[in-house]
Input
Amino acid sequence: MTEDGYRGPQVCNIVGITYRQLDYWARTHLIRPSIADARGSGSQRRYSYTDLLELKVIKNLLDAGVSLRSARKAIAYLREQGSDIATANLVLNGSQSIMVRTGEEIVDLLRQGQGVLNIVPLAGVKDEVDAAILSLRPPEAPAPARPEEGPASAAH
Output
């Protein structure tokens, strides 16, 4: 992560959302940038790595067919739990969000007669964000060639 965080266009590339979505989510307090919020014309929002993870979770929820209202509730639930999203699954059943860590916990929910469950694996979110961040970095320049040392260079 950069010390200054991530600017809007970087966030959009990393998470895979449009700037319009990011702006709307910030203005409606779905996710506020935790490093720096916009303060008038010319200022820029700065998002932390944790913000990127939450944004990616929101995107994955929406991609899985979850409504934005339910995604808001799910993110609030994740924040309340202080959960490590890199090792869990989020199970949504209508208005409820439940964090589960193992397949057995999911099976238990099904056995309890829960209605339609939308299960969103979160374990890949961190890896996806990390890969997207790495892809934005410019490739390192090769080290300059060193002159050969040996008898030929000694003659000069």
About this structure: The mean pLDDT is 74.
